[in-house]
Each structure stands twice: as structure tokens, then as C-alpha cells.
């Protein structure tokens, strides 16, 4: 269970989970999850439905007790000092509960009082959050009459009210239209300049667009923890597309001899030979291909590295399948 | 990277010149309440300098509600213990005298029973009277409704403090006399006069101190909250207090003078005027704060 003697890391580490575990009546929802998040990071918590994202977040924010393990926010133990933890966390739950009969500004004033924002700074702070979340034009409107996008913004403004060190956002773009999704993502990116953000999502493009680091959780366990780029390089074989002029068979056989090349396939042959190479994970064979083409005197028209998307990484990690990488050019 | 303990990470934040009762995010509520009450009574200038003049009335209203609750309970305890010790013998006094002697105990018991209602009605009435206080002080420099009402609410709280303290002392003296009388009945010869003297002197002193605190705090409040000079602040505070006094006296006179019907009609009229005035003031305040 919780250990009151737990020693937490330096003030640079704002979120720390140590062996967090949660059972629901015998069902293991989160299994010994450990990670840290440093000041100023925007971290995505990815995982399929039912992977344990929301349970992990609820344990981190003190809304749900852990069966075992411990967690700290800004150095405060979630179990031992939940009030201090709540002062340092801005949490926007997935269902974004608001009081629909209140006006936006009135609601934020009420929440600011509950969150202990000093009375002297309350109006200024509410004004800042309203401007930051671009809800000034609806600040006198009744929440129940707002669109889903505006409600999400009100939820975000609420999360930011007490100037928390850490913002934890559970599926912040779920149910929004594409324009609202884009605006919300831009807002979260902006928030990352002042806050440490942990964002839970199963929309991979979102994590790729916003997060500097992703944690992939599957069946209650953290199965990957790195930057999207590093995960892509490490987990899935990237492909290189080459377009050369010359004899197709010779080109394919010679390309196979390049170190780290695992597989070569001819995609098109119409005067120019379009070939796809798969190299071992993390290897970049473009330089070797270029050198070979120069040695052989093959005119080279294209040499492109395609990078695996986070979606490929996600599929590979959570389903154990290596999907064909999308054509995300990086060369 | 050196490791730090939980205690290191949980270092307290500074209070940045904020009133601890209005910065509950950084202060434990009980500690903040007593610290702020001490400041309000002993150092009103410092208290009102740090008081916010906007940002909602939750804090001053709650502060007053706590003191009203404490006052009702202390009053109930004091009148009950005093009556227990010094009640006249029903065999030797007339029923009217006995009823008059038991009136404080009966009234305070009624208030204690209705405590939840008192805790809502008391602060609500105080906010409406605060609007009147603001309106009367406006020509002298009372700038915004929230600021004036805050000064008024904290002023009333300060006025209640000595009264509550006096009632607590009366309770303690009466209770001690009552308890001493159980094993030693002869002690009543000096405990009853002592309790009677304490009751009369302390209640009178508490009442005088309350009025002095109300005047002092409202003047200091105006000086510090709106940076008014002492003369203008005193004029604003006295005008406000007189206005409140007239309205309260009018309502009371309605019941005691012409009779029940006129009393209720007067009370309803005053309440209606106060509600309208408060609504208009709140609306103006919202416009000022939100710029809409």
C-alpha cells in the first residue's frame, strides 16, 4: 500500500507515479504503472479504450485511491496530501462536468472561490483565463446554451484558474468538430508554454501534433515511453523509396547487399525502377544507397525515407502487428 | 540531481500581503479565520489595507455568518447558564417578572433552534443593509458596491466579536457558579451576585465596544479600502451607519408603535426597496467588473 516514507524526486519532476496499481473487484485495470513528467513537458497518454488511461489519471489526481503504489504532483503525495495536490493540478475530466444553469463568468467565479484563488486576484485571474480560452464573447451566456466546443473551453479555463503547475486533460477534443479540434489543440500547445500538461487521448494524430513525449498504455501497463519520433524510429521499420534508372533485377540484387537492408521490393518498372527498401529499425540506409547509385552509374531521381506514423507504432505495440507505414515523407 | 523529501516539496507559499481569510488556498480555514479576526479587532488598518474590494462576497459573508453563529450559540449558553444560576424563585415573584427574567433564555433558545435560518437570513440582511450603507456613503467617496459591502460586513463582524467574547465570559462565570452550587449550596450567596454583576457589566461593555468597533472599522475600512482621507471616510461611514440605523429603527417602530399591520407593511416596503437597490448595485458592479 502507500508508503508515507516515499522520497520524491527533485522539484523539476512535477508528476511522478511509482508502481501505481488498481484493481476493480478482482479485475486488474492498472498494473504497476511508473513514470515521471518534468516541468514544461507536454506528455500524451495513449491507449486503446479500456487500457487504463482514465483510471491512471484519476489516481494521479486523487479522485480514485490506488490499490497499491504511490504518486506525487509537484512533490505532494497524492494519498498523504490530497488537498495540496488539488491546488497544484488543473484537471479536466473526460465528461467535463459544468453547471449548465450558471453563466460562464459566474461559474468561473464560483470555481475560483472553491479553488482558493485569492479574492484580491480573482477577477484578474478569471479575465486572464477567459481571454486565454477565447470565451469572452460568451462570458455572460448560460453554460447550458453553449456549444460543445465552448463548453470544453470553459472546462479548460476552469482547469487553469488556480494557475496549477500541472494540467491533466482527459480526452479534451472528444466530440468536437474539426475546427474546434484544431483550436483546442492550438490552445493546449499554448498552455504547454506555461504549464506541464498530461493529455489523455486515443487520437494518435492529436498526440503526434501536440505532445513532445508519449506514454502508451495497454492492458493497464506502460508499454512505451518516448518521443513520437524516437518511438517511430525504434519500433517500426521505416522504408526508403528509391527511383533509379537501370536494369531492374541488378538494381534489386545490388540493393539487397547494403548493410541493414532487410527487404527490397520493386514497386514500378517503366524505364525508371521504383524500389522500396525496408531496413532494420533505427537504421538509415539512404547514404549507402546514394553511394551505390554513384558507383554503378545509375541515374537517381528520388531517394525518400518514409517514416512510420504514431498510428503504426501504436498498432505494433498494442496489437503486436506491423502495419504498412503511411507515406509520411522525411527525406 | 539531489533528492528532496515530501516535506521539502510542500513548502508553504508566502501570503503576498493578502488577507489570510481571503486566501484560503494557501491557509488552513480555522487558522485563517482566527488570524484575520485578530487582525480585524487589533489592527483594523492593516486588515482593511489587505482586504480585497472586488472578487465576490463569499469570504466576508462567510466570516460574518461564522460570527453570527458563534454569537447565537454563545448567547444561548450565556442566558441558559445565567438563568440556571440566578433565576428568581417563582414562588416569590409575580408570573410577569418570572417571564421577563426568562425572556433572554427563551429568545436565545429560539434563535439557537432556528440557527440554520439565522445563518442564512442574518448575512442576507447584512448584505442588503450594506447596500444602503454603500448608497449613503457614495457621495463621500464610497467607490464600488463590493468594496463598501465588504467594509460593512467585516465591520459588523468586528462589532459582534466583543459581544461574543462578553457572552462567553458570562457563560463561564455562570456555569462555574452553577457547578459550585451543586456540592456547596452556600456558594450561591456570592456566585449569584457575581454572575449578575458580570452579566450586566460585560453585556453593557460588550454592547458599547460593539458600537465603537462598528464605527471604528467602517471608518478605517473606508480609509484603507478606497484611500479616502479620514474626514471623508468618517462622513461616508457615519452617513451609512445613520441610514442603516434609521431603516432598522423604522422597522422596529412599525411593530412596537402603530401595531402589527403597519409593522409588517413597513418591513415589506423596506425589504422591497433594499432588494431593488441591491439588485441594481450588483448589476452595476458586474458591468464595472466585466466591462460589459
What does the secondary structure layout of this molecule look like, with pairings?
The complex is a heterodimer of chains A (331) and B (292).
Chain A: E1 13-24, E2 27-38, E3 42-46, H1 53-60, E4 68-73, E5 76-77, H2 82-88, E6 89-92, H3 104-114, H4 119-132, H5 148-160, E7 166-170, H6 178-191, E8 196-201, H7 204-210, E9 213-218, E10 221-226, H8 228-235, E11 239-245, H9 248-256, E12 261-270, E13 272-279, H10 286-296, E14 300-307, H11 310-319, E15 328-329
Parallel strand pairs in A: 3-8, 3-9, 6-7, 7-8
Antiparallel strand pairs in A: 1-2, 1-4, 4-5, 9-10, 11-13, 11-14, 12-13, 14-15
Helix pairs in contact in A: 3-4, 4-5, 8-11
Chain B: H1 6-9, H2 29-42, H3 44-50, H4 58-86, H5 95-113, H6 115-137, H7 145-181, H8 188-225, H9 230-256, H10 260-290
Q: Rg of chain B from C-alpha positions?
A: 23 Å
**Unreliable runs of chain A:** 1-5, 322-331
Q: Mean pLDDT score of chain B, rounded?
A: 87
Structural domain tally of chain B: 1
Provide an overview of this structure.
Chain A is built from eleven helices and 15 strands. Chain A has helices spanning 53-60, 82-88, 104-114, 119-132, 148-160, 178-191, 204-210, 228-235, 248-256, 286-296, 310-319; strands at 13-24, 27-38, 42-46, 68-73, 76-77, 89-92, 166-170, 196-201, 213-218, 221-226, 239-245, 261-270, 272-279, 300-307, 328-329. In chain A, helix 3 (104-114) packs across helix 4 (119-132) and helix 8 packs across helix 11 (310-319). Chain A is elongated. Chain A starts with 12 loop residues before the first strand and ends with a strand. The model of chain A is unreliable at 1-5 and 322-331 (pLDDT under 50). Chain B is an all-alpha fold. Chain B has one domain. Chain B contains ten helices and no strands. Chain B has helices at 6-9, 29-42, 44-50, 58-86, 95-113, 115-137, 145-181, 188-225, 230-256, 260-290. Chain B is globular and about 70 Å long. Chain B starts with 5 loop residues before the first helix and ends with a helix. Classes of the chains: A alpha/beta (331), B mainly alpha (292). Chain A binds chain B through residues 6-12, 72, 74-77, 80-81, 84, 87, 105, 109, 113, 115-123, 139-140, 162, and chain B through 1-6, 8-10, 16, 18-19, 22-26, 50, 52, 54-56, 58-59, 289-290, 292.
Amino acid at each position: 500500500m502507500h508508503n508515507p516514507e516515499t522520497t520524491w524526486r527533485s522539484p523539476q519532476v512535477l508528476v511522478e507515479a511509482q508502481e501505481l496499481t488498481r484493481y476493480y473487484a478482482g479485475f486488474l485495470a492498472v498494473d504497476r504503472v511508473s513514470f515521471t513528467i518534468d516541468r514544461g513537458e507536454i506528455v500524451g497518454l495513449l491507449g486503446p479504450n479500456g487500457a487504463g488511461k482514465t483510471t491512471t489519471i484519476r489516481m494521479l489526481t486523487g479522485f480514485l485511491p490506488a490499490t497499491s503504489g504511490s504518486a506525487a504532483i509537484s512533490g505532494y503525495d497524492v494519498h498523504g496530501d490530497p488537498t495540496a495536490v488539488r491546488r497544484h493540478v488543473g484537471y479536466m475530466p473526460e465528461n467535463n462536468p459544468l453547471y449548465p444553469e450558471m453563466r460562464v463568468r459566474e461559474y468561473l467565479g464560483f470555481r475560483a472561490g472553491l479553488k482558493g484563488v485569492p479574492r484580491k486576484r480573482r477577477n484578474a485571474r478569471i479575465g486572464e483565463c477567459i481571454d486565454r480560452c477565447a470565451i469572452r464573447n460568451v462570458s455572460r451566456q448560460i453554460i447550458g446554451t453553449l456549444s460543445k466546443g465552448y463548453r470544453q473551453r470553459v472546462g479548460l479555463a476552469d482547469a487553469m484558474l488556480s494557475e496549477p503547475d500541472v494540467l491533466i486533460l482527459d480526452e479534451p477534443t472528444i466530440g468536437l468538430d474539426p475546427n474546434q479540434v484544431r483550436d483546442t489543440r492550438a490552445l493546449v500547445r499554448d498552455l504547454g508554454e506555461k504549464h506541464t500538461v498530461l493529455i489523455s487521448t486515443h487520437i494518435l494524430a492529436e498526440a503526434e501534433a501536440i505532445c513532445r513525449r508519449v506514454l502508451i498504455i495497454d492492458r493497464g501497463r506502460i508499454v512505451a515511453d518516448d518521443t513520437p519520433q524516437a518511438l517511430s524510429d525504434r519500433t517500426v521499420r521505416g522504408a526508403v523509396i528509391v527511383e533509379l534508372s537501370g536494369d531492374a533485377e541488378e538494381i534489386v540484387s545490388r540493393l539487397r547487399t547494403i548493410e541493414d537492408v532487410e527487404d527490397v521490393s520493386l514497386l514500378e518498372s517503366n524505364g525508371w525502377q521504383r524500389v522500396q527498401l525496408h531496413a532494420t529499425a533505427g537504421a538509415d540506409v539512404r547514404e549507402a544507397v546514394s553511394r551505390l547509385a554513384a558507383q554503378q552509374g545509375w541515374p537517381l531521381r528520388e531517394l525518400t525515407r518514409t517514416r512510420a506514423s504514431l498510428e503504426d507504432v501504436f498498432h505494433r505495440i498494442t496489437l503486436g502487428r506491423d502495419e504498412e507505414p503511411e507515406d509520411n515523407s522525411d527525406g | 540531481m539531489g533528492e528532496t523529501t515530501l516535506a521539502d516539496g510542500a513548502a508553504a507559499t508566502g501570503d503576498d500581503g493578502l488577507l489570510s481569510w481571503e486566501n484560503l488556498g494557501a491557509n488552513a480555514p480555522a487558522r485563517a479565520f482566527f488570524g484575520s479576526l485578530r487582525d480585524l479587532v487589533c489592527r483594523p488598518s492593516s486588515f482593511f489595507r489587505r482586504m480585497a474590494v472586488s472578487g465576490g462576497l463569499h469570504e466576508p459573508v462567510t466570516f460574518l455568518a461564522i460570527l453570527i453563529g458563534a454569537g447565537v450559540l454563545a448567547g444561548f449558553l450565556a442566558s441558559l447558564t445565567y438563568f440556571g444560576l440566578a433565576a428568581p424563585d417563582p414562588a416569590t415573584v409575580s408570573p410577569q417578572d418570572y417571564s421577563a427574567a426568562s425572556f433572554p433564555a427563551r429568545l436565545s433558545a429560539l434563535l439557537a433552534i432556528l440557527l440554520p435560518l439565522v445563518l442564512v437570513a442574518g448575512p442576507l440582511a447584512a448584505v442588503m443593509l450594506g447596500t444602503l450603507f454603500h448608497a449613503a456613503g457614495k457621495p463621500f467617496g464610497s467607490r464600488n458596491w463590493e468594496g463598501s459591502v465588504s467594509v460593512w460586513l467585516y465591520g459588523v463582524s468586528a462589532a459582534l466579536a466583543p459581544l461574543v467574547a462578553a457572552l462567553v465570559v458570562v457563560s463561564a462565570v455562570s456555569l462555574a457558579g452553577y457547578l459550585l452550587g451543586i456540592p456547596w449550596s452556600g456558594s450561591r450567596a456570592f456566585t449569584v451576585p457575581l454572575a449578575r454583576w458580570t452579566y450586566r457589566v460585560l453585556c453593557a461593555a460588550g454592547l458599547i465596544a460593539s458600537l465603537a468597533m462598528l464605527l471604528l472599522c467602517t471608518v478605517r475600512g473606508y480609509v484603507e479600502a478606497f484611500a479616502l482621507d479620514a474626514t471623508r471616510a468618517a462622513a461616508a461611514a457615519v452617513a451609512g451607519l445613520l441610514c442603516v440605523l434609521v431603516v432598522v429603527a423604522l422597522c422596529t417602530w412599525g411593530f412596537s408603535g402603530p401595531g402589527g399591520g403597519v409593522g409588517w407593511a413597513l418591513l415589506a416596503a423596506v425589504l422591497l426597496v433594499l432588494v431593488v437597490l441591491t439588485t441594481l448595485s450588483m448589476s452595476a458592479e458586474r458591468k464595472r467588473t466585466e466591462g460589459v
